[in-house]
Write a structure and sequence with these properties.
Largest sheet: 8 strands, mixed
CATH topology of the largest domain: 434 Repressor (Amino-terminal Domain)
Number of helices: 24
Number of strands: 8
Strand content: 5-15%
Number of domains: 3
Radius of gyration: 26 Å
Strand order of the largest sheet: 3-2-4-1-5-6-7-8
Structural class: alpha/beta
């Protein structure tokens, strides 16, 4: 969602590239570009103006730190103000100390309110060990009750509804049903409208009066821009909202609602919807979102996703293969399947530092991963373990088995060679650069592959944290994805460009670039080239 805003802000930050210091004059010019970027992203004009004023005050009032460049100081100030704008950090849903927690869900029609009820119930059950009861009180929209019942059946959760009575009475009886059955969370799905009107507001207010909800959450479609902010303001005047849920953050809208809605309503964003699946609802973290907007990625979110979707055994096996340099097509297939578990490729790449703003230049297509997997499964186990035996006759057979042409097989093998070469380089520069295989195995037995980032996350953090031990952390995954998608292809960043985005040293680069240590072999080769 924030790609265009990220690109515009990056352009504004580059203004300080050649500046020695920040002055009142040059910061005004840079903040003008930031303000324009925010307004083009559909951020409320008052919010954009106040944001730039606070950034200016923070930068000019900050003490100049030695070794910190003006551009870094400016970016840091923007990051902190974005966190404050969307914060506070750590806002949580409050649960009742006794009896069921009653959550009233309100919003306009089309915002995804009913689906979000199911997503929220799933999240509370799996992450907080709650026993939710869904109450279908949207009697206005055709099939709304049936939709909630279908969601309840998919989640194996009870759905309460009484036909022939008003919405407020349905909700009141639903709360009594929760007390009777021992449910500790009641989620009330109320009716929506195409626009805010008095009848809807009166109906929702009556439900709130009858049920005394502990939380009144507004479901807002982030793709509606400033209309979302205006509807949130209208609901807050009648309902005294406790929080907001932003849906469709995976869309292509400009993202202004996410930056404006908390400032306008003074209520925190609690959850964000990032897809259509029932598991695509996450707690909102202002600091992570600010990092993604500024092109810093969301490494913690990516590690948490890996921890949830990738087993410790898979991660450990993958990590050891990389460190030991024993990478085969079988391992590449395992990597591909692990990456697929993390979600859509654009979402995964957007969470990698420095890659989010480059996603449009990559040939990112989830269907391509399916086609690649078909090529892998068309090979025999021996061929995947020994790709050197794949002569042309075997390649033709693999292509026919996968319903593709030979060029697809050649492209896959080219990507494999590029990824294997990259891992060799990273292995040489990273863990055990001068160690033998036995010493590496011994080191692997004595250390945790989860790494510092995945501490407390369990599970699949091993893949991501393990890659971090090899050199530039998650950059290796980004470069690997670049290889999988044909990193040097037309209109795409090359493998060296991807390394540069991740802060890795490219082959043949100067010894001090990026703070990397030049090996003796590289130093000798560089001196030899110089003598020529």
């Amino acid at each position: 969602m924030f790609e265009s805003l990220t690109q515009r802000l990056s352009s504004a930050f580059s203004f300080f590239k050649d500046k020695k210091e920040i002055t009142p004059d040059n910061i005004d010019e840079a903040l003008g570009q930031v303000r324009t970027a925010l307004l083009e992203a559909d951020v409320n004009f008052k919010v954009a103006r106040e944001f730039t004023e606070r950034v200016k005050a923070r930068v000019l009032g900050a003490e100049k730190l030695p070794g910190v460049e003006p551009g870094q100081q400016f970016v840091h100030a923007c990051h902190r103000e974005l966190v404050d704008l969307m914060g506070p950090e750590g806002a949580q849903l409050e649960f009742a100390k006794s009896g069921p927690t009653i959550i009233l869900m309100a919003g306009l029609q089309g915002a995804g309110k009913t689906t979000t009820c199911g997503k929220l119930a799933k999240l509370l059950r799996e992450k907080h060990k709650k026993r939710p009861l869904l109450v279908a009180a949207d009697v206005k929209r055709p099939a709304a009750v049936e939709q909630l019942k279908v969601l309840g059946a998919r989640l194996s959760l009870p759905v309460f509804h009484v036909a022939g009575v008003g919405p407020a009475e349905v909700c009141a009886r639903g709360v009594e049903e929760a007390k009777r059955t021992g449910a500790d969370v009641v989620i009330l799905d109320t009716a929506g409208r195409l626009h805010v009107d008095e009848e809807m507001m009166a109906e929702v207010a009556e439900i709130a009066r009858r049920t005394s909800p502990h939380a009144q959450l507004l479901v807002v479609d982030a793709m509606t821009g400033q209309d979302a902010v205006r509807s949130a303001q209208a609901f807050h005047e009648r309902l005294a909202l406790t929080g907001v849920i932003l849906t469709k953050l995976d869309g292509d809208a400009r993202g202004g609602a996410a930056l404006s809605i908390k400032h306008v309503t003074s209520r925190p964003i609690l959850f964000i919807g990032t897809g259509e699946k029932l598991e695509d609802l996450d707690w909102f973290h202002p600091e992570r979102m600010a990092g993604r907007i500024l092109g810093m990625g969301d490494v913690v979110g990516l590690v948490e996703s890996a921890a949830t979707n990738i087993s410790e055994e898979e991660a450990r096996a993958s990590y050891e293969k990389m460190v030991l340099g024993e990478f085969t097509l079988e391992d590449m297939l395992a990597q591909l399947r692990m990456i697929k578990k993390l979600g859509p490729m654009k979402k995964v790449l957007g969470m990698l530092p420095g890659v989010g703003q480059m996603v449009d230049k990559l040939d990112v297509d989830d269907k391509r991963m399916v086609r690649m997997e078909a090529l892998f499964t068309s090979m025999t186990p021996r061929e995947r373990l020994h790709p050197e035996i794949l002569e042309m006759s075997r390649r033709r057979r693999i292509a026919r088995g996968a319903g593709q042409d030979v060029d697809a097989v050649n492209e896959l093998l080219k990507g494999f060679k590029g990824m294997k070469q990259m891992l060799k380089e990273m292995n040489r520069l990273g863990l055990g650069a001068k160690m033998g295989a036995d010493a590496k195995r011994s080191a692997l037995r004595d250390m945790s592959p989860t790494g510092e980032l995945a501490a407390g996350g369990g599970g699949g953090g091993g893949l991501l944290g393990g890659l971090g031990s090899l050199g530039s952390g998650l950059g290796s995954l980004g470069s690997g994805l670049g290889s999988l998608f044909g990193g040097g292809g037309k209109g795409q960043p090359s493998l060296d460009e991807l390394r540069g985005m991740m802060g890795q040293r490219s082959v043949g680069s100067s010894p001090n670039r990026g703070g990397k240590v030049e090996s003796k072999k590289d130093k000798k080769a560089r001196r030899k080239r110089g003598r020529r």
